[in-house]
């Protein structure tokens, strides 16, 4: 059906089904004569293809155009050779995204030897296929050897999570967040001002349609005074202009136009619209240790938002081949959409053990000291993996890890050994 529509309306072969439907649905707003003329257009080629890469003619050679990576330490510089650049530089996605747009942030931001940034963003859903030769290498590096033939599972059935109540004597709070993007629109580095505004309207409408304990309020960032914005930001309910790292990527363009914040009335669910790398960031958070309840609310909200989105004729970007999962601007967030399940946890004794970093790493977790609480041994513990593991398995992994960390802390408090508990 999608292919017939693409051929009928003269859209480039390789346009995703979602993009085709969105473009065609907007033809309803045009005069009938314009639609008829579009319908009479013939495609340039009928050769089947998953994504058609346009090409452009360059005035300068590859040697003249290739970025100077001599002082760079990011992942892009590690993998983008002159030969690979020559192969990809003249390609474009059906929406017109180029390789140079995708890599500009990595060219201008060389990275740091101790903090290895990726240095590449996708400009639209099709970027991952049109420029797959470089994206596959970056994905493999970031996601522990994830190959081009691996499959990503998706599972948002929160009823499958076990043991989700964490000891509140140790766990201060639970937080779950992920990002989503709408199929048929370019991603933030490439989207136009009009696209961003339409994305905001679609998400605002979907968020304001939530009911029950999910019901909340949407506020455009541009309607907030500096004082209001600072106050909401301090509470975690608003966001500020993206940092200098993103300045050359194009992400902060037109700030704060098309951006907004939403939260439900009991302030346990937050959404940021067009904040930075992605179109929607959804956050579920609760004080105490009830990770299961936080995940229940998170899944309920995502399910309702998906239904509201479909009622408007849209859907989330998702790799239908089940390879990359939910599509995001940064390759680091592919799969679960950057799902991050985290807890603030008090580990005053375990955190002083020299084996603590290894314990956390072996549990496939990340740890960060909570600012202002260093002396109390409070850490932010979260999952390390995002691609190749489902949402349910991610949450379960965090729950099991926290239970073990609490058990170790209790044993240390009673002067007992934890040697037999250390994960290998």
Topology of this structure?
Layout: H1 2-8, H2 17-26, H3 32-39, E1 54-55, H4 62-65, H5 75-79, H6 82-88, E2 91-92, H7 99-108, H8 127-130, H9 132-142, E3 171-180, H10 193-208, E4 216-220, H11 226-235, E5 260-264, E6 269-273, E7 280-287, H12 291-311, E8 340-346, H13 356-362, E9 365-369, E10 378-383, H14 391-413
Antiparallel strand pairs: 1-2, 3-7, 3-8, 4-5, 5-6, 6-7, 8-10, 9-10
Helix pairs in contact: 1-2, 10-12
Organism: Ramazzottius varieornatus (Water bear)
GO cellular component, one term: extracellular space
Enzyme class: transferase
Keywords:
arginine kinase; 8-stranded antiparallel sheet; EC 2.7.3.3; ATP-binding; alpha+beta; creatine kinase activity; Gln_synth/guanido_kin_cat_dom; disordered N terminus; Creatine Kinase, Chain A, domain 2; 14 helices; 424 residues
A few lines on this structure:
With 424 residues, this protein is of the alpha+beta class. The protein is built from 14 helices and 10 strands. It has 3 domains: 2-39, no CATH class; 55-142, Orthogonal Bundle (Transferase Creatine Kinase, Chain A, domain 1), CATH 1.10.135.10; 167-421, Glutamine synthetase/guanido kinase, catalytic domain (Creatine Kinase, Chain A, domain 2, 2-Layer Sandwich).
């Amino acid at each position: 059906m999608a292919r017939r529509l693409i051929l009928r309306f003269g859209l480039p072969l390789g346009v995703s089904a979602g993009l085709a439907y969105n473009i065609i649905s907007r033809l309803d707003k045009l005069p009938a004569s314009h639609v008829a003329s579009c319908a009479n257009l013939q495609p340039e080629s009928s050769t089947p293809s998953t994504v058609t890469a346009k090409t452009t003619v360059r005035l300068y050679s590859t040697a003249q155009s290739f970025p100077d990576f001599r002082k760079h330490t990011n992942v892009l510089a590690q993998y983008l050779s002159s030969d690979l650049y020559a192969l990809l530089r003249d390609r474009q996605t059906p929406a017109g995204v180029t390789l140079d747009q995708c890599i500009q942030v990595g060219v201008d931001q060389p990275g740091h030897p101790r903090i290895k940034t990726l240095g590449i963003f996708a400009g639209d859903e099709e970027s991952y296929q049109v420029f797959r030769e470089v994206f596959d290498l970056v994905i493999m590096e970031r996601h522990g050897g994830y190959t081009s033939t691996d499959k990503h599972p998706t599972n948002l059935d929160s009823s499958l999570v076990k043991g989700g109540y964490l000891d509140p004597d140790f766990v201060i709070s639970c937080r779950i967040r992920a990002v989503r993007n709408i199929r048929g629109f370019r991603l933030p580095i490439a989207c136009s001002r009009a696209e961003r505004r339409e994305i905001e309207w679609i998400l605002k409408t979907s968020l304001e349609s939530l009911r029950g304990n999910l019901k909340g309020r949407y506020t455009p960032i541009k309607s907030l005074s500096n004082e209001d914005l600072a106050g909401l930001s301090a509470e975690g309910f608003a966001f500020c202009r993206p940092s200098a790292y993103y300045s050359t990527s194009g992400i902060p363009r037109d700030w704060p136009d098309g951006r907004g914040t939403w939260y439900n009335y009991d302030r346990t669910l937050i959404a940021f619209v067009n904040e930075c790398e992605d179109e929607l960031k959804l956050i579920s958070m609760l004080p105490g240790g009830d990770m299961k309840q936080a995940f229940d609310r998170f899944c309920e909200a995502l399910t309702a938002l998906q239904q509201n989105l479909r009622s408007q004729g849209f859907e989330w970007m998702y790799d239908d081949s089940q390879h990359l999962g939910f599509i995001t601007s940064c390759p680091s967030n592919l799969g679960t959409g950057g799902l991050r399940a985290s807890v603030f946890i008090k580990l005053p004794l375990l955190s002083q053990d020299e084996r603590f970093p290894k314990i956390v790493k072996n549990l496939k977790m990340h740890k960060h000291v909570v600012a202002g609480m260093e002396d109390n041994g409070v850490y932010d513990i979260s999952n390390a993996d995002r691609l190749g593991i489902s949402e349910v398995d991610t949450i379960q992994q965090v729950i099991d890890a926290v239970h073990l960390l609490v058990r170790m802390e209790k044993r240390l408090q009673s002067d007992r050994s934890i040697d037999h508990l250390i994960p290998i």
